[in-house]
Amino acid sequence: MRGARDEVQKYNCVPIRDEHGFEEDRMAEARKDDAQAKKAPAQNAPEAAPVVDKEAAAAAEVDALVVKARKALEEFEKLDQETVDRIVAKASVAALNKHLVLAKMAVDETGRGLVEDKATKNIFACEHVTNYMAGQKTVGIIREDDVPHSIYEIKGAKKCAIEFRSFSKTAGFTGVRCGYTVVPKELTAATLEGERIPLNKLWNRRQCTKFNGTSYITQRAAEAIYTPEGQRQIKETIDYYMDNAHTMKQGLEAAGLKVYGGVNAPYIWLKTPDGTGSWRFFEQMLYEANVVGTPGVGFGPSGEGYIRLTAFGKHEDCVEAMKRIRKWLK
Questions:
Q1: Environment class of residue 249 by beta-carbon count within 10 Å: exposed (0-12), middle (13-18) or buried (19+)?
Q2: What is the pLDDT of residue 174?
Q3: Would you tell me how many other CB atoms lie within 10 Å of the CB of residue 235?
Q4: Is the pLDDT at 2 greater than 90, yes or no?
Q5: What is the Cα–Cα distance from 231 to 200, expressed in whole angstroms?
Q6: Of 119, 93, 84, 91, nearest to 105 (Cα)?
Q7: What is the pLDDT of residues 293-302, one digit of tens each?
Q8: DSSP states of 154-186 as a string?
Q9: Alpha carbons 239 and 10: distance in angstroms, whole number
Q10: Helix (H, G, I), strand (E, B) or coil at 83
Protein backbone atom coordinates (compact mmCIF):
# COMPACT_ATOMS: atom_id res chain seq x y z
CA MET A 1 0.00 0.00 0.00
CA ARG A 2 2.75 2.41 0.91
CA GLY A 3 4.58 1.59 -2.32
CA ALA A 4 1.44 2.40 -4.27
CA ARG A 5 1.11 5.76 -2.58
CA ASP A 6 4.74 6.53 -3.36
CA GLU A 7 4.09 5.73 -6.99
CA VAL A 8 1.03 8.00 -6.92
CA GLN A 9 3.13 10.90 -5.74
CA LYS A 10 5.84 10.10 -8.28
CA TYR A 11 3.53 9.98 -11.31
CA ASN A 12 0.89 12.38 -10.04
CA CYS A 13 -1.81 9.75 -10.66
CA VAL A 14 -4.93 8.83 -8.72
CA PRO A 15 -5.15 5.16 -7.53
CA ILE A 16 -8.47 3.38 -8.00
CA ARG A 17 -10.03 0.45 -6.15
CA ASP A 18 -10.98 -2.90 -7.63
CA GLU A 19 -14.18 -4.76 -6.89
CA HIS A 20 -12.70 -6.17 -3.68
CA GLY A 21 -12.10 -2.70 -2.25
CA PHE A 22 -8.29 -2.82 -2.47
CA GLU A 23 -6.21 -0.22 -4.22
CA GLU A 24 -5.31 -1.50 -7.63
CA ASP A 25 -2.02 -0.46 -9.05
CA ARG A 26 -2.92 0.84 -12.49
CA MET A 27 0.36 2.64 -12.99
CA ALA A 28 2.41 -0.13 -14.54
CA GLU A 29 1.91 1.41 -17.94
CA ALA A 30 3.03 4.79 -16.65
CA ARG A 31 6.17 3.23 -15.22
CA LYS A 32 6.85 1.51 -18.50
CA ASP A 33 6.50 4.75 -20.44
CA ASP A 34 8.78 6.49 -18.00
CA ALA A 35 11.48 3.84 -18.36
CA GLN A 36 11.33 4.05 -22.15
CA ALA A 37 11.58 7.82 -22.02
CA LYS A 38 14.77 7.57 -19.96
CA LYS A 39 16.35 5.18 -22.46
CA ALA A 40 15.38 7.18 -25.56
CA PRO A 41 17.75 9.97 -26.65
CA ALA A 42 16.45 13.45 -26.11
CA GLN A 43 14.97 15.01 -29.23
CA ASN A 44 16.00 18.53 -30.07
CA ALA A 45 17.41 18.93 -26.56
CA PRO A 46 19.58 22.04 -26.18
CA GLU A 47 23.28 21.47 -25.64
CA ALA A 48 24.30 21.59 -22.00
CA ALA A 49 25.92 24.87 -21.08
CA PRO A 50 29.54 24.57 -19.96
CA VAL A 51 30.03 24.56 -16.22
CA VAL A 52 31.67 27.79 -15.11
CA ASP A 53 33.52 28.04 -11.83
CA LYS A 54 32.40 31.52 -10.84
CA GLU A 55 34.82 31.74 -7.92
CA ALA A 56 37.81 30.79 -10.08
CA ALA A 57 36.70 33.20 -12.79
CA ALA A 58 36.38 36.02 -10.27
CA ALA A 59 39.81 35.24 -8.82
CA ALA A 60 41.36 35.26 -12.30
CA GLU A 61 39.73 38.60 -13.06
CA VAL A 62 41.03 40.10 -9.82
CA ASP A 63 44.54 38.79 -10.51
CA ALA A 64 44.48 40.38 -13.95
CA LEU A 65 43.33 43.69 -12.51
CA VAL A 66 46.08 43.59 -9.86
CA VAL A 67 48.71 43.10 -12.58
CA LYS A 68 47.35 46.11 -14.44
CA ALA A 69 47.22 48.14 -11.23
CA ARG A 70 50.85 47.36 -10.43
CA LYS A 71 51.91 48.46 -13.89
CA ALA A 72 49.84 51.63 -13.59
CA LEU A 73 51.36 52.36 -10.17
CA GLU A 74 54.87 51.97 -11.53
CA GLU A 75 54.10 54.52 -14.24
CA PHE A 76 52.24 56.85 -11.89
CA GLU A 77 55.13 57.05 -9.43
CA LYS A 78 57.34 58.38 -12.23
CA LEU A 79 55.09 61.39 -12.82
CA ASP A 80 55.95 64.89 -11.68
CA GLN A 81 53.69 67.15 -9.61
CA GLU A 82 52.25 68.95 -12.65
CA THR A 83 51.15 65.73 -14.32
CA VAL A 84 49.67 64.37 -11.09
CA ASP A 85 47.69 67.60 -10.65
CA ARG A 86 46.30 67.31 -14.16
CA ILE A 87 45.20 63.70 -13.65
CA VAL A 88 43.61 64.49 -10.29
CA ALA A 89 41.72 67.44 -11.79
CA LYS A 90 40.19 65.28 -14.53
CA ALA A 91 39.35 62.49 -12.09
CA SER A 92 37.76 65.02 -9.75
CA VAL A 93 35.46 66.39 -12.45
CA ALA A 94 34.45 62.87 -13.55
CA ALA A 95 33.69 61.79 -9.97
CA LEU A 96 31.82 65.03 -9.23
CA ASN A 97 29.53 64.42 -12.20
CA LYS A 98 28.70 60.99 -10.76
CA HIS A 99 28.64 61.93 -7.06
CA LEU A 100 25.04 60.82 -6.55
CA VAL A 101 25.41 57.61 -8.55
CA LEU A 102 28.50 56.66 -6.55
CA ALA A 103 26.70 57.44 -3.29
CA LYS A 104 23.79 55.15 -4.21
CA MET A 105 26.19 52.38 -5.23
CA ALA A 106 28.01 52.63 -1.89
CA VAL A 107 24.77 52.30 0.07
CA ASP A 108 23.48 49.45 -2.10
CA GLU A 109 26.75 47.53 -1.77
CA THR A 110 27.22 47.90 1.98
CA GLY A 111 23.66 48.37 3.20
CA ARG A 112 24.95 51.09 5.51
CA GLY A 113 24.72 54.85 5.67
CA LEU A 114 22.53 57.34 3.87
CA VAL A 115 22.77 58.35 0.23
CA GLU A 116 22.58 62.03 1.20
CA ASP A 117 25.58 61.76 3.55
CA LYS A 118 27.72 59.93 1.02
CA ALA A 119 26.76 62.36 -1.74
CA THR A 120 27.84 65.28 0.49
CA LYS A 121 31.14 63.54 1.22
CA ASN A 122 31.73 62.95 -2.49
CA ILE A 123 31.11 66.60 -3.34
CA PHE A 124 33.43 67.73 -0.56
CA ALA A 125 36.23 65.39 -1.66
CA CYS A 126 35.90 66.10 -5.38
CA GLU A 127 35.40 69.85 -5.22
CA HIS A 128 36.60 71.48 -2.01
CA VAL A 129 39.60 69.29 -1.21
CA THR A 130 40.84 69.19 -4.80
CA ASN A 131 40.54 72.96 -5.29
CA TYR A 132 42.17 73.72 -1.95
CA MET A 133 45.17 71.47 -2.58
CA ALA A 134 45.65 72.47 -6.22
CA GLY A 135 49.23 73.62 -6.75
CA GLN A 136 50.43 72.24 -3.42
CA LYS A 137 52.97 69.46 -3.03
CA THR A 138 51.44 65.99 -2.81
CA VAL A 139 54.19 63.87 -4.37
CA GLY A 140 56.09 62.32 -1.46
CA ILE A 141 55.85 63.07 2.24
CA ILE A 142 55.13 66.72 3.03
CA ARG A 143 57.90 68.16 5.20
CA GLU A 144 57.66 71.88 4.39
CA ASP A 145 56.28 74.31 6.96
CA ASP A 146 54.35 76.48 4.50
CA VAL A 147 51.90 73.80 3.31
CA PRO A 148 48.88 72.24 5.09
CA HIS A 149 49.65 69.54 7.64
CA SER A 150 46.05 68.90 8.69
CA ILE A 151 42.86 68.27 6.75
CA TYR A 152 41.12 70.76 9.03
CA GLU A 153 42.95 73.57 7.27
CA ILE A 154 40.41 72.95 4.52
CA LYS A 155 37.16 74.86 4.97
CA GLY A 156 34.25 72.60 5.90
CA ALA A 157 36.40 69.60 6.84
CA LYS A 158 35.30 69.65 10.48
CA LYS A 159 31.81 68.66 9.40
CA CYS A 160 32.81 65.53 7.53
CA ALA A 161 36.32 64.34 8.43
CA ILE A 162 38.10 62.44 11.21
CA GLU A 163 41.88 62.77 11.44
CA PHE A 164 44.22 60.10 12.77
CA ARG A 165 47.70 61.06 13.94
CA SER A 166 50.63 58.86 14.95
CA PHE A 167 54.08 59.55 16.38
CA SER A 168 55.40 56.34 14.85
CA LYS A 169 57.37 57.90 11.98
CA THR A 170 57.59 61.50 13.20
CA ALA A 171 59.37 60.70 16.43
CA GLY A 172 60.46 57.10 16.04
CA PHE A 173 57.62 55.69 18.17
CA THR A 174 57.55 52.46 16.22
CA GLY A 175 56.81 49.72 18.76
CA VAL A 176 55.81 52.23 21.45
CA ARG A 177 52.52 52.89 19.67
CA CYS A 178 51.18 56.29 20.54
CA GLY A 179 48.84 58.48 18.54
CA TYR A 180 45.61 60.37 18.75
CA THR A 181 42.33 60.85 16.93
CA VAL A 182 40.67 64.19 16.20
CA VAL A 183 36.85 64.04 16.14
CA PRO A 184 35.40 67.57 15.75
CA LYS A 185 32.31 68.44 17.77
CA GLU A 186 30.73 69.70 14.55
CA LEU A 187 30.89 66.20 13.04
CA THR A 188 27.63 64.22 13.10
CA ALA A 189 26.38 60.94 11.68
CA ALA A 190 22.94 59.53 11.00
CA THR A 191 21.31 56.64 12.82
CA LEU A 192 19.25 54.06 10.94
CA GLU A 193 16.21 56.16 11.76
CA GLY A 194 17.81 59.23 10.21
CA GLU A 195 18.54 61.06 13.46
CA ARG A 196 21.76 63.12 13.48
CA ILE A 197 24.01 62.50 16.48
CA PRO A 198 27.41 64.03 17.38
CA LEU A 199 30.33 61.61 16.95
CA ASN A 200 32.62 63.31 19.46
CA LYS A 201 30.72 62.11 22.53
CA LEU A 202 30.16 58.68 20.99
CA TRP A 203 33.87 58.27 20.25
CA ASN A 204 34.78 59.43 23.74
CA ARG A 205 32.43 56.84 25.24
CA ARG A 206 33.91 54.14 23.06
CA GLN A 207 37.48 55.04 24.09
CA CYS A 208 36.65 55.24 27.79
CA THR A 209 34.85 51.88 27.65
CA LYS A 210 37.24 49.78 25.55
CA PHE A 211 40.64 51.40 26.07
CA ASN A 212 42.60 51.73 29.31
CA GLY A 213 44.73 54.54 27.97
CA THR A 214 48.37 54.95 26.88
CA SER A 215 50.97 54.26 29.54
CA TYR A 216 52.14 57.28 31.53
CA ILE A 217 55.75 57.05 30.39
CA THR A 218 54.65 56.94 26.75
CA GLN A 219 52.46 59.99 27.26
CA ARG A 220 55.37 61.92 28.74
CA ALA A 221 57.51 60.97 25.76
CA ALA A 222 54.79 62.24 23.41
CA GLU A 223 54.54 65.45 25.40
CA ALA A 224 58.28 66.03 25.02
CA ILE A 225 57.91 66.02 21.23
CA TYR A 226 56.27 69.45 21.37
CA THR A 227 58.99 71.15 23.39
CA PRO A 228 61.60 73.27 21.53
CA GLU A 229 64.26 70.69 22.31
CA GLY A 230 61.97 67.90 21.14
CA GLN A 231 61.29 69.65 17.84
CA ARG A 232 65.02 70.18 17.29
CA GLN A 233 65.78 66.54 17.97
CA ILE A 234 63.00 65.33 15.68
CA LYS A 235 64.29 67.43 12.79
CA GLU A 236 67.80 66.08 13.28
CA THR A 237 66.50 62.53 13.44
CA ILE A 238 64.40 62.84 10.29
CA ASP A 239 67.30 64.42 8.39
CA TYR A 240 69.59 61.60 9.52
CA TYR A 241 67.27 58.83 8.35
CA MET A 242 66.43 60.59 5.09
CA ASP A 243 70.14 60.78 4.37
CA ASN A 244 70.27 57.02 4.94
CA ALA A 245 67.37 56.57 2.52
CA HIS A 246 69.16 58.68 -0.11
CA THR A 247 72.31 56.57 0.27
CA MET A 248 70.35 53.33 -0.05
CA LYS A 249 68.38 54.48 -3.08
CA GLN A 250 71.55 55.50 -4.92
CA GLY A 251 73.30 52.25 -3.98
CA LEU A 252 70.46 50.02 -5.13
CA GLU A 253 70.00 51.87 -8.41
CA ALA A 254 73.75 51.62 -9.03
CA ALA A 255 73.36 47.85 -8.63
CA GLY A 256 70.79 47.88 -11.44
CA LEU A 257 67.75 47.36 -9.23
CA LYS A 258 64.41 49.10 -9.62
CA VAL A 259 63.42 50.93 -6.43
CA TYR A 260 60.61 53.15 -5.19
CA GLY A 261 60.57 55.58 -2.29
CA GLY A 262 63.61 56.87 -0.45
CA VAL A 263 63.03 60.45 -1.64
CA ASN A 264 60.56 61.73 0.92
CA ALA A 265 60.09 58.54 2.91
CA PRO A 266 62.42 56.47 5.14
CA TYR A 267 61.44 53.25 3.34
CA ILE A 268 62.54 51.82 0.03
CA TRP A 269 60.61 49.25 -1.98
CA LEU A 270 62.95 47.09 -4.05
CA LYS A 271 61.53 45.27 -7.07
CA THR A 272 62.84 41.72 -7.06
CA PRO A 273 64.66 40.90 -10.33
CA ASP A 274 63.51 38.28 -12.84
CA GLY A 275 60.12 37.83 -11.17
CA THR A 276 61.61 36.23 -8.07
CA GLY A 277 59.11 35.80 -5.23
CA SER A 278 59.37 37.99 -2.14
CA TRP A 279 60.27 35.19 0.26
CA ARG A 280 62.70 33.58 -2.18
CA PHE A 281 64.60 36.84 -2.72
CA PHE A 282 64.50 37.54 1.02
CA GLU A 283 66.22 34.20 1.72
CA GLN A 284 68.79 34.69 -1.03
CA MET A 285 69.68 38.18 0.16
CA LEU A 286 69.86 37.00 3.77
CA TYR A 287 72.07 33.93 3.26
CA GLU A 288 74.14 35.05 0.27
CA ALA A 289 74.59 38.78 0.98
CA ASN A 290 73.93 38.77 4.74
CA VAL A 291 71.44 41.63 4.40
CA VAL A 292 67.96 41.42 5.87
CA GLY A 293 64.78 43.11 4.68
CA THR A 294 61.04 42.50 4.83
CA PRO A 295 59.25 40.41 2.16
CA GLY A 296 56.71 42.66 0.47
CA VAL A 297 54.06 39.95 0.47
CA GLY A 298 53.98 40.29 4.26
CA PHE A 299 52.11 43.56 3.73
CA GLY A 300 49.51 41.92 1.50
CA PRO A 301 49.25 40.14 -1.86
CA SER A 302 50.08 43.32 -3.81
CA GLY A 303 53.50 43.33 -2.12
CA GLU A 304 54.52 40.10 -3.84
CA GLY A 305 57.65 40.61 -5.91
CA TYR A 306 59.00 43.37 -3.65
CA ILE A 307 61.29 43.72 -0.64
CA ARG A 308 60.92 46.61 1.78
CA LEU A 309 64.12 48.07 3.21
CA THR A 310 64.15 50.57 6.06
CA ALA A 311 66.42 53.56 6.55
CA PHE A 312 65.91 53.42 10.31
CA GLY A 313 69.41 52.36 11.28
CA LYS A 314 73.01 53.46 11.56
CA HIS A 315 74.44 55.22 8.52
CA GLU A 316 77.50 52.95 8.48
CA ASP A 317 75.24 49.88 8.37
CA CYS A 318 73.30 51.29 5.41
CA VAL A 319 76.53 51.94 3.50
CA GLU A 320 77.83 48.44 4.29
CA ALA A 321 74.52 46.83 3.25
CA MET A 322 74.64 48.56 -0.14
CA LYS A 323 78.23 47.36 -0.69
CA ARG A 324 77.19 43.76 0.06
CA ILE A 325 74.20 43.89 -2.27
CA ARG A 326 76.22 45.35 -5.15
CA LYS A 327 78.93 42.71 -4.67
CA TRP A 328 76.31 39.95 -4.43
CA LEU A 329 74.55 40.93 -7.66
CA LYS A 330 77.71 41.28 -9.80
A1: buried
A2: 67
A3: 11
A4: no
A5: 29
A6: 119
A7: 999 988 888 8
A8: STTGGGT--EEEESTTTTT-TTT--EEEE--TT
A9: 84
A10: helix
